[in-house]
Design goal:
By secondary structure, the chain is mainly alpha-helical. It has a single domain, classed as MFS general substrate transporter like domains (Growth Hormone, Chain: A), CATH 1.20.1250. It is 77% helix and 0% strand. The protein contains 17 helices and no strands. Helix 3 runs antiparallel to helix 7 and helix 6 packs across helix 14. The chain is globular. The model has no long low-confidence stretch (mean pLDDT 83).
Length: 421
């Protein structure tokens, strides 16, 4: 029999997911701290190191839609626990590398697949399964976990590298990944029915979506094929491609080395990037609240437009000291960092219906990481060729401004109510 409890189990699922994503974000942020130490330790060029990060970012995204389908097929708990073990293995093996291709194999391939199997599709899966009311806010909160992880891990990892060498980063992440496995095993429940409740905010006559009986790989591919016939899907793909290019690929990977190029210490630069994470938490939570109340297309228009303007300003304020203009960028850009996620997740539910919304988001997120992968490598090539990152910042800013127009074309002619499925 369906019963209701005073503290809804949905919030427990959200809290466990939040802490898992905090840890995952810390693992994901580590490459930006490794660039300078690996240059110093091995004499590798920045584009060689960035190639491994590019592969990591790419696989992080390409794994996502299949991970979403695997979660539907084999349970969230099993997929996330296997992903954490994979990350631990890859991070540990990183401590034995002595050539760039080994960095690609360990950090690029193994850690990339492991983190991608959790990624933001984990957040979207939990939000879609456990919440009817407050879904946008929950997606915002779980997305903000990425910023929290960056805040917690980045300065510490940078300091750890200075004190004990770059290998200490791999060992720390390997241990932290394994320690997360019992948390998932003992505290994360699969779906509301497992504990005899309805999703949070669901009416008494609510019925769960009917899930496909296809295997995980086929379901992901079929969903992509069917979604490809929808113009709105391609608008979402394009917008999130630019989102990834302008965040995780460019700023997330190259902010610290760019600041280092302009005379800032690595620990201080890592602290600034972590400060971006502080304001990201605020901005993403607020974005989730707004997504529950306003047209997600208009929100995306403002997010991409403001991000583009901030990137155009960045080259003029880099970075010889912490000036007020640098802090203004950190605050402004931080508020906008992943504010795009809650409205994008909501719009993904309109393509093939809510029952496949998470898989569609997985493919849209893959485009995010393809953009991030291109920026991670491309910005390094720009730096090697021209001596600084300015051209990369300008191109990224221009693409954000262009995309702010195209997101308004999503569901053109449709009402807000028709998009809030």
């Amino acid at each position: 029999m369906i019963t209701r409890t005073k503290i809804h189990p949905a919030w427990i699922a959200a809290i466990v997911t939040f802490f898992t994503l905090v840890a995952t974000a810390g693992f994901r942020s580590a490459p930006s701290v490794l660039i300078i130490p690996l240059e110093d330790a091995f004499g590798w060029s920045r584009d060689q190191i960035s190639l491994a990060i590019s592969v990591n970012v790419l696989l992080y995204g390409l794994t996502a839609p299949f991970a979403a389908a695997l979660m539907e097929r084999f349970t969230v708990r099993k997929v996330v626990m296997c992903a954490l073990i994979t990350v631990s293995t890859g991070a540990f093996l990183t401590t034995y590398i002595h050539a760039p291709w080994q960095l690609i194999a360990t950090w690029g391939v193994i850690v990339g697949i492991g983190t991608g199997s959790m990624a933001l599709v984990f957040a979207a899966t939990i939000a879609n399964r456990w919440f009817v009311a407050r879904r946008g806010l929950v997606i915002g909160g779980l997305t903000a976990a990425g910023a929290a992880g960056q805040l917690i891990f980045l300065p510490g990892l940078a300091r750890l590298s200075e004190l004990h060498g770059w290998k200490s980063i791999g060992l720390t992440i390997a241990i932290a990944s394994i320690l997360m496995v019992p948390l998932i095993y003992f505290f994360l429940r699969e779906k509301p029915a497992d504990v005899g409740v309805l999703p949070y905010g669901a009416p008494v006559d609510w019925e769960p979506p009917v899930h496909s009986g296809m295997n995980a790989g086929k379901l992901a591919i079929v969903s992509l094929k069917e979604a490809s016939a929808h113009k709105d899907f391609w608008y979402l793909i394009g917008s999130f491609f630019v989102c990834g290019l302008s965040t995780s690929g460019l700023i997330g990977t190259h902010f610290i080395p760019a600041a280092h190029d302009h005379g800032m210490g690595q620990v201080m630069a890592a602290g600034l990037l972590a400060l971006v994470g502080v304001f990201d938490v605020i901005g993403t939570l607020f974005s989730g609240w707004l997504t529950d109340r306003y047209d997600p297309r208009k929100l995306l228009f403002f997010y991409y437009g403001l991000r583009g303007l901030s990137l155009f300003l960045l080259p003029s304020i880099l970075f010889s000291s912490i000036r007020p203009s640098t802090l203004v960028f950190v605050i402004f850009y931080g508020l906008d960092w992943v504010a795009t996620v809650p409205p994008t997740v909501m719009l993904c539910r309109t393509i093939l219906g809510p029952e496949r919304g998470t898989i569609i988001y997985g493919w849209v997120f893959a485009a995010h990481q393809i953009g991030g992968s291109i920026a991670a490598l491309g910005a390094a090539v720009v730096r090697v060729k021209f001596g600084d990152y300015a051209a990369a910042f300008y191109v990224s800013g221009a693409l954000c401004l262009i995309m702010s127009y195209f997101v308004l074309q999503i569901g053109k002619g449709k009402s807000l109510a028709s998009l809030s499925v």
